[in-house]
C-alpha cells in the first residue's frame, strides 16, 4: 500500500524512552556498507560535521557515512519519504501522526543509551521511534552591549516594560527585532512557544469546540503582541530585508537588539561573531503579571528509515552520536542544552543566567489525535496567521478568517 504523509501543525513533537538490550555486534557483519545522514546543517556539513563523522568511520571501518545537508529540510524529507527513498538516518518528520511512525521508521527498542528528559513522547504502541538531540527553552536572545548602549540596565518583567525596552532601542537608533518576514517559521514560533505559557491546557482543550481563536485566547493574545510590535515600528522598516543568517550577524554585531526564539539560537549568534559573554537570554514577559514562564521542548529527533537497507548500522551511528560522543556532538551541532539527565553533559553557559530568572517551566505535550486530524484537514499553520496579521494589521479579521477554516475542519473530523 502506498504510503502518504499527513500535514499537521509543525509544532507536533514526540519523545521516547530507550529500553531493551544493547545493539551488540549485529552491525559488525564485516561487509562494507554506506549509510546516509540527512540533516539541516548546511553551514557545517562539509566541515566540522564531516570531521566529526570521520571519527566514527575510523572506529567503524566497515561503515561509510554520507552526510547530506538540505535547507528546506522537511519538504525534502517528505518528498523522499513519499517516494520510499527516505535516507537511513534523518529527523523524525513532525508532519506525521504517531500512528504513522511505523510506516516510515524502524523501532529503536534495542538501543542502549543513557537516560534523558521527555521519556514518553516518542514511543507509540510500546515502540521507540526517535531520540531528540537537545532540548530548548523559549526566550529573548539579546546582545548585552547593545542593551547597555540603549540605556537598558534592567530586563523587563512585564509586557509594558517589554514595549518600553523596545522603544529605548528604537530611540537609540537600533532596530529592536525582526520578523524575518520572508522565511517561514519565525513568526509562527511566537504562537507555538508563547501560547502554551499563557494557558498550558489550551492545546488540549482547543479541539473541544468551535471558534477557538478569540481575542482573549492564547493565539489572540500573541497575535495582538505581534501587531503591537509591528505598528509601533519595532520591526525593521523593510520587512523583506532579513534572513536567518543576516539576523544572527546583526544580533552579534549590535545592529539588532534581540530576537525571540529558543535557546538553540544562542550558540549560533556566538558563532556568527559575538563574544559569548555578550549574548544572553531571558524569558519573554507576555503579560503584566511579572511572572516569567518558558516553553520547554525537545528538538530534532533522530530516527532510522524503514527504507534503510542497513538499519543496524544506522542505529549504531545514532548511538555513537547521541550517547558515546554526545557532548562533542552537541558542540559540533551548535546545540544549547543537553537533553540527558546526567548533569555532567554539556550545556551552554548562558543557561545558568536563564535559570537565575526562575521561570515556570511549561513542558511540551503532544496534541490529541483529534486536534492533529483537524489541523491536517484545515491545512493552515500558525505561521500563516502571524504573517496575515502583519499584512492586514487587523487581528480580529485574521482570527475570524481562521475560525471559519478551523470550524469547517472541525465539522469534517467530528462526523
Can you give keywords for this protein?
39% helix; single chain; 415 residues; alpha+beta; two-stranded parallel sheet; six-stranded mixed sheet
Descriptive report:
The protein is of the alpha+beta class. 39% of the residues lie in helices and 14% in strands. It contains 16 helices and 10 strands. It has helices at 48-59, 73-82, 101-104, 144-149, 159-171, 186-198, 202-205, 218-231, 244-253, 265-271, 311-324, 326-332, 350-356, 369-378, 382-392, 395-414; strands at residues 33-39, 63-69, 89-91, 123-124, 127-128, 131-143, 258-262, 279-282, 293-304, 360-363. Strands 3, 6, 7, 8, 9 and 10 form a 6-stranded mixed sheet that branches. α6 (186-198) packs across α15 (382-392). It is globular and about 65 Å long. Mean pLDDT is 88; it is low at 1-25.
Distance between the termini: 26 Å
- Number of contiguous helices: 16
- What is the approximate shape? globular
Low-confidence stretches: 1-25
Average pLDDT level = 88
Number of strands: 10
User: Mind telling me the C-alpha Rg?
Assistant: 22 Å
Order of helices and strands: EHEHEHEEEHHHHHHEHEEHHHEHHH
Report the sheet-strand fraction.
5-15%
Main sheet overview: 6 strands, mixed
Indicate the percent of residues in helices: 25-40%
Structural class: alpha+beta
Amino acid at each position: 500500500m502506498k504510503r502518504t504523509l499527513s500535514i499537521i501543525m509543525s509544532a507536533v513533537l514526540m519523545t521516547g524512552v530507550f529500553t531493551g538490550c544493547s545493539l551488540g555486534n549485529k552491525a559488525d557483519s564485516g561487509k562494507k556498507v554506506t549509510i546516509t545522514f540527512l540533516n539541516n546543517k548546511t553551514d557545517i556539513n562539509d566541515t566540522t560535521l564531516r570531521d566529526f563523522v570521520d571519527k566514527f568511520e575510523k572506529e567503524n571501518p566497515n561503515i561509510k557515512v554520507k552526510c547530506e545537508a538540505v535547507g528546506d529540510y522537511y519538504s525534502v524529507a517528505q518528498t523522499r519519504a513519499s517516494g520510499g527513498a527516505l535516507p537511513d538516518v534523518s529527523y523524525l518528520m513532525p508532519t506525521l501522526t504517531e500512528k504513522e511512525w511505523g510506516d516510515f521508521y524502524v523501532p529503536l527498542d534495542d538501543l542502549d543509551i543513557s537516560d534523558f528528559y521527555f521519556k514518553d513522547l516518542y514511543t507509540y504502541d510500546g515502540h521507540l521511534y526517535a531520540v531528540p538531540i537537545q532540548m530548548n527553552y523559549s526566550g529573548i536572545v539579546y546582545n548585552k552591549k547593545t542593551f547597555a548602549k540603549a540605556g537598558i540596565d534592567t530586563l523587563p518583567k512585564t509586557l509594558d516594560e517589554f514595549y518600553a525596552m523596545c522603544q529605548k532601542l528604537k530611540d537609540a537608533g537600533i532596530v529592536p527585532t525582526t520578523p524575518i518576514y520572508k522565511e517561514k517559521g519565525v513568526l509562527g514560533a511566537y504562537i507555538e512557544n508563547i501560547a502554551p505559557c499563557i494557558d498550558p491546557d489550551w492545546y488540549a482543550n482547543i479541539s473541544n469546540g468551535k471558534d477557538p481563536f478569540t481575542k482573549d485566547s492564547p493565539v489572540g493574545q500573541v497575535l495582538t503582541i505581534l501587531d503591537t510590535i509591528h505598528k509601533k515600528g519595532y520591526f525593521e522598516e523593510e520587512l523583506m530585508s532579513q534572513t536567518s543568517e543576516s539576523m544572527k550577524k546583526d544580533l552579534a554585531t549590535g545592529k539588532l537588539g534581540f530576537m525571540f526564539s529558543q535557546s538553540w539560537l544562542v550558540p549560533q549568534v556566538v558563532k556568527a561573531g559575538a563574544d559569548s559573554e555578550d549574548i544572553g537570554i531571558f524569558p519573554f514577559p507576555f503579560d503584566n503579571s511579572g511572572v516569567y514562564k518558558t516553553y520547554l521542548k525537545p528538538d530534532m529527533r533522530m530516527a532510522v528509515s524503514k527504507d534503510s537497507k542497513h538499519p543496524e548500522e544506522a542505529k549504531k551511528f545514532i548511538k555513537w552520536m547521541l550517547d558515546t560522543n554526545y557532548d562533542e556532538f552537541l558542540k559540533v551541532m551548535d546545540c544549547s542544552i543537553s537533553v540527558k539527565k546526567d548533569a555532567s553533559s554539556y550545556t551552554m553557559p548562558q543557561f545558568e543566567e536563564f535559570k537565575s530568572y526562575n521561570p515556570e517551566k511549561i513542558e511540551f505535550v503532544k496534541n490529541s489525535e483529534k486536534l492533529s486530524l483537524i489541523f491536517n484537514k484545515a491545512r493552515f499553520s500558525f505561521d500563516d496567521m502571524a504573517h496575515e496579521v502583519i499584512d492586514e494589521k487587523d487581528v480580529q479579521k485574521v482570527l475570524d478568517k481562521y475560525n471559519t477554516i478551523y470550524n469547517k475542519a472541525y465539522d469534517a473530523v467530528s462526523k
